[in-house]
């Protein structure tokens, strides 16, 4: 089967979160199953930087061509590289005025940015590129609102482009809280016929995610629990009636881990590689991390790590009110993240008010993220919502039992220790979104940590689970096949 992924992130070239990890890994897993897979990504400034760092030289895939959209004509170019360690081509759509910027995404959340122009141009140019390369895919797989125009274009373009007659569309929802909402005047940028206006509009605005959900042949959510949550008022972020209307086409598939990148046996971003048989080496990573964090490396006390975007979603505002309480009781905390300035300020504040017990690094630092997974005793994710979550999967693989809230994919992937399930449990789970529930669960984890036999068992349970992409990649293939059969396409 020929599959084209079209997305706004793809690790290691452009990543702000889990979406990048998924788009960097799933296509390779699908190619390993014997399929012809390609990925399309905007040529951001960050992509040039990543190529420089990795020593990758792109080649010209297509001569510059023009795209007419709205009232404008844009010139774009397409370069090609390969996803590292694979033969999966990554096509990079270049338009400097749109993608050569300091940040991948604009910080504006009110629709005042030009995201709809940037990503409409990207989707239209990528689809034109597929045509020019004579590679119409069997499955066009879009991810989140940025590329939701792809299923809309396939379904609603008028006249339809016969080149895509045999193409079905899949839209994966990685995060429903970002929907791509713009004023209704922005509809012209999509290049869709007027008849599609009502399908893209939601509660007075153009809503790209809504349009994609209406148009896609199948919708996948990044965990079964998240798929259910999308249809509830609390989990659908206002789009729950739209998801509920399409409930038969919404399928939850848990993300996997890239075994070449997030695997303590081969991870070159940590100083000491280790496996479940060599847990002493995990302690060597711990020593190095504690030294970097200005903490006593010989202190055997419990060390908790956290890595993530500092946004409302991640629930760190539940951690900060109990931070002094935790560190006063001997828990040490290491955090890495960037995002909302009030959270960044909290990291600075605790670093200066509790040195040696709290260390917060503000920024995006991939190597440090790996070392925190490897070097802490437990990893905390108190998320308010979490479609899938990858960090808890990395924690399981790195022998760092996660402390998570029972939401979304966290509920699907972590089994909490309850005092009597030591052979099955892989971490610690709490329900109530409150600082006290979080604090009590961290203290419960610390209590368990001081029982070495129990702790080693929990570590082993997590490390011996298989979260590789293989299984999920196969499930995606089953979805593609079902959709093609449903549409009567062989
Ligand atoms: P989300 O997609 O909601 O951001 P996930 O847990 O699915 O959350 O994935 C987060 C990914 O982004 C992980 O690979 C994590 O290591 C990485 N990440 C997040 N923040 C940072 C940061 N400040 N520095 C380095 N890596 C980060």
Structure description:
The mean pLDDT is 97. The protein has 490 residues and is of the alpha/beta class. The protein has a nine-stranded mixed beta sheet with strand order 3-4-5-2-1-6-7-11-12, sandwiched between helices. Strands 15-14-13-16-17-18 form a six-stranded parallel beta sheet, sandwiched between helices. A three-stranded antiparallel beta sheet has the order 8-10-9. Helix content is 38%, strand content 20%. The longest helix has 18 residues, at 115-132. It has two domains: 2-256 and 470-486, Glycogen Phosphorylase B (Rossmann fold), CATH 3.40.50.2000; 280-466, 3-Layer(aba) Sandwich (Rossmann fold), CATH 3.40.50.2000. It is globular and about 70 Å long. Strand 4 and strand 5 form a beta hairpin. It has helices at residues 18-32, 45-54, 96-99, 115-132, 149-156, 197-200, 208-215, 224-229, 240-245, 279-292, 316-319, 323-328, 341-353, 366-375, 391-397, 408-413, 435-449, 452-463, 469-486, and strands at residues 2-6, 36-42, 59-69, 72-82, 89-94, 139-143, 168-173, 181-182, 201-202, 205-207, 218-221, 250-252, 303-310, 332-339, 358-362, 378-381, 402-405, 428-430. It starts with a strand and ends with a helix. Residues 17-19, 21, 307-309, 336-338, 364-366, 369, 388-391 line the site of adenosine-5'-diphosphate.
């Amino acid at each position: 089967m020929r599959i084209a992924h079209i997305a706004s992130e793809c690790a290691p070239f452009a990543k702000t979160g889990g979406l990048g990890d998924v788009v960097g890994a799933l296509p390779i897993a699908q190619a390993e199953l014997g399929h012809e897979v390609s990925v399309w990504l905007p040529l951001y400034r960050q992509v040039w930087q990543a190529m420089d760092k990795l020593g990758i030289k792109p080649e010209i895939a297509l001569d510059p061509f023009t795209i007419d959209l709205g009232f404008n004509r844009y010139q774009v170019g397409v370069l090609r590289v390969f996803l590292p360690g694979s033969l999966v081509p990554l096509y990079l759509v270049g338009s400097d005025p749109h993608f050569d910027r300091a940040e991948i995404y604009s910080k504006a959340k009110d629709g005042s940015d030009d995201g709809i122009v940037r990503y409409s141009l990207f989707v239209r140019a990528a689809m034109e590129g597929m045509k020019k390369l004579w590679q119409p895919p069997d499955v066009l797989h879009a991810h989140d609102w940025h590329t939701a125009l792809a299923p809309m274009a396939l379904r609603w373009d008028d006249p339809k482009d016969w080149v895509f007659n045999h193409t079905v569309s899949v839209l994966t929802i990685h995060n429903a809280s970002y929907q791509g909402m713009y004023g209704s005047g922005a509809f012209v940028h999509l290049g869709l016929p007027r008849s599609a206006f009502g399908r893209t509009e939601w509660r007075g605005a153009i809503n790209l995610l809504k349009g994609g959900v209406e148009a896609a042949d199948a919708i996948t959510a990044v965990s079964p629990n998240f798929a259910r949550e999308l249809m509830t008022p609390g989990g659908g972020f206002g789009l729950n009636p739209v998801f509920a209307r399409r409930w038969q086409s919404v399928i939850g598939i848990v993300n996997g881990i890239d075994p070449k990148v997030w695997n303590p046996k081969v991870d070159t971003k940590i100083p000491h590689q280790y496996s479940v048989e060599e847990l002493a080496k995990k302690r060597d990573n711990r020593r190095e991390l504690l030294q970097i964090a200005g903490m006593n490396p010989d202190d055997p006390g419990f060390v908790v790590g956290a890595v993530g975007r500092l946004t409302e979603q991640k629930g760190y505002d539940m951690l900060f009110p109990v931070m002094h309480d935790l560190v006063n009781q001997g828990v040490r905390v290491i955090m890495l993240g960037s995002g909302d300035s009030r959270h960044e300020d909290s990291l600075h504040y605790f670093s200066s008010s509790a040195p040696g017990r709290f260390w917060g690094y503000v920024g995006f630092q991939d190597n440090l993220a790996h070392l925190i997974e490897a070097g802490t005793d437990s990893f905390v994710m108190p998320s308010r919502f979490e479609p899938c979550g990858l960090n808890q999967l990395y924690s399981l693989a790195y022998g760092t039992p996660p402390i998570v809230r029972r939401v979304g994919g966290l509920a699907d992937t972590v089994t909490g220790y309850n005092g009597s399930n030591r052979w099955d449990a892989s971490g610690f789970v709490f329900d109530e979104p409150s600082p006290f529930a979080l604090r009590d669960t961290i203290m419960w984890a610390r209590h368990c940590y001081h029982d070495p036999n129990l702790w080693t068992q929990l570590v082993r349970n997590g490390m011996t689970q298989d979260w590789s992409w293989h299984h999920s990649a196969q499930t995606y293939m089953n979805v593609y096949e079902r959709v093609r059969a449903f549409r009567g396409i062989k």
